[in-house]
Structure formats: structure tokens, C-alpha cells
Backbone:
């Protein structure tokens, strides 16, 4: 109970920001369509490129985000294949995107640091790159297929600045480029802005609901994949990696399992808003998943016992 209360206290500012977004959308007239492009095309690339530039890279640490990326893609495609007969487009496309992604930024960092300490932050950031690679490649492609042809969906992926920011950040890291204190301070400010706008966007999506009827099939399917299939699949992958390569340290395996119990990504709402793919359903699913997340975190001691 103490752990649950501590987690809820850590998450309370996030819920407060979402509430502020709801108020801004319902009574001030702020639209999610104004925030989503700003997050996707400007703030996210700068945050990701700067974080990757400062991340400690080695053969073992590169394996962590790579395994996460493979798991994201696998679950996305599996969820699409399993549910596409029962859930129509573009809802199934939102489900596929949401199933493969997670809130690896504004949820994982504060909660992970609270659970594992400040020294865990580099590993959490590295594991989060796996989600970001998925989101800005296969994830966006699957989401866009709900309203666009495969060719147009691919064009949208190739126009994403985050993909190129990722490559530039990786190259700069390999070349040993360093940032000035002012640049580091600026990137930290951007990361906070990223978190604030992302959580407020969730509230804006909820505020846009008018005569909305919950799609219980969509919500149930998404929550089962995120909070049941993900921990099971992550545990299986870790068992296979330990039995074959054995390259991950105990801390890296714990972070991998921690990332598997994260809630749905708030960027699901941003992309659904931008691509006009059921943003109300996306907002409802993300909110419910975030409310379930503290209980999913209670599974971690059980999952850790198998390491």
C-alpha cells in the first residue's frame, strides 16, 4: 500500500497537468490541433537528438533499445493481426500504434528515478529510444494507414524530423561532440516543456469529446495488450536473451521489465489528433491506462524475482 501511495504521489503532477489541459480545452478554447504539431515536429526532435547526444553508448547499451524496438514492432503487428477482424479502421490503426508504444518520457523518467534512483536515468533514456524508434517508423506508418494509402503513409514517416534528429544525435555522440552548459540548460528546459505539453494534450483530447460513447471493445483490447501481454512478452525476451547472449546486466534487465509495465503513450493522442484518427478514443484509452499503471507497477517485484 505504501508503494502504491508513493507512486500515486509521483504521478499527481501529471494528472494535474491533464486536468489543466481539460480546463483549457473545455472553457478557454485551446485545441489539441495546435499543440500536436508543435510537439511532433519541433520539440520532440530537439529533445530526442539532445538526449541521444549525451547518452552513454556501448555494445551492451545499444542492445537494450534494440530489443525494446523489436518488442514494440512485434506487439504492434501482433495486435493488428489479432483484432483487425473485429475492430474497423481507423480504430484498429490507433490500437496497433498504442499497443506497440508506451509513455517512456514524461511517465518513465520521474517514476523510474523514484523507484531506482538517479543513477537509473541513463538506462531509462536508452530503453526509451526503442519506443521512439518504433513510434517514428512503424508506429506512425500503421497509424497513418487508417486514413491514407501505404505510399502516403510512408511519405509521412520519411518527412518526420525525429528520424533525422535521432541519426544526427547518434552521429554526434559517436564523434564525441559536447554541449555547452547553456545548450544543456536549454535542452533540459525543452524536456520539461515536452512533458508539460504532452500531459496537457491528454486533457485537451478529453475536452474535445462531445456525445462520446466509450468503445469498450477497443478499450479492453488495448488495456489487455498493454498491461498483460507486454510484461509476459518482455519476460520471455529477457529469458531468451539471458539463455543465449547474456549481454545485459541485472540493472538493464530490471529497467527492461520496468519499461514493459508503462502505460500507453500520451503521444498516441498527439498522432491521432494530427492524423485525424479517433483522438477521443485515444485520449480515453491513454487516461485509463495511466490510471491502471500504478497497479501494474506493483507487479515489478514479482517479475524481478525471476531474473
Residues:
Amino acid at each position: 500500500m505504501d508503494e502504491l501511495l508513493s507512486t500515486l504521489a509521483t504521478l499527481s503532477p501529471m494528472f494535474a497537468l491533464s486536468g489543466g489541459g481539460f480546463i483549457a480545452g473545455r472553457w478557454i478554447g485551446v485545441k489539441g490541433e495546435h499543440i500536436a504539431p508543435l510537439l511532433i515536429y519541433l520539440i520532440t526532435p530537439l529533445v530526442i537528438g539532445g538526449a541521444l547526444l549525451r547518452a552513454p553508448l556501448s555494445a551492451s547499451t545499444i542492445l537494450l533499445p534494440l530489443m525494446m524496438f523489436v518488442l514494440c514492432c512485434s506487439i504492434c503487428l501482433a495486435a493488428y493481426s489479432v483484432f483487425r477482424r473485429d475492430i474497423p479502421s481507423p480504430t484498429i490503426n490507433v490500437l496497433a500504434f498504442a499497443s506497440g508504444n508506451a509513455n517512456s518520457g514524461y511517465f518513465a523518467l520521474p517514476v523510474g528515478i523514484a523507484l531506482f534512483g538517479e543513477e537509473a536515468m541513463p538506462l531509462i533514456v536508452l530503453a526509451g529510444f526503442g519506443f521512439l524508434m518504433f513510434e517514428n517508423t512503424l508506429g506512425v506508418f500503421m497509424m497513418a494507414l487508417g486514413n491514407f494509402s501505404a505510399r502516403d503513409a510512408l511519405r509521412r514517416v520519411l518527412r518526420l524530423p525525429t528520424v533525422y534528429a535521432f541519426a544526427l544525435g547518434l552521429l554526434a555522440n559517436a564523434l564525441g561532440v559536447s554541449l555547452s552548459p547553456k545548450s544543456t540548460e536549454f535542452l533540459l528546459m525543452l524536456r520539461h516543456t515536452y512533458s508539460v505539453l504532452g500531459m496537457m494534450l491528454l486533457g485537451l483530447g478529453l475536452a474535445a469529446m462531445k456525445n462520446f460513447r466509450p468503445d469498450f471493445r477497443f478499450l479492453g483490447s488495448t488495456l489487455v495488450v498493454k498491461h498483460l501481454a507486454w510484461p509476459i512478452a518482455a519476460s520471455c525476451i529477457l529469458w531468451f536473451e539471458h539463455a543465449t547472449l547474456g549481454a545485459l546486466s541485472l540493472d538493464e534487465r530490471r529497467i527492461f521489465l520496468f519499461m514493459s509495465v508503462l502505460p500507453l503513450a500520451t503521444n498516441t493522442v498527439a498522432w491521432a489528433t494530427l492524423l485525424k484518427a479517433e483522438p477521443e478514443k485515444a485520449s480515453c484509452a491513454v487516461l485509463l491506462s495511466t490510471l491502471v499503471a500504478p497497479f501494474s507497477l506493483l507487479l515489478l517485484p514479482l517479475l524481478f524475482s525471476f531474473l
Notes: The chain has a mean pLDDT of 85. The two ends are 24 Å apart (CA to CA).
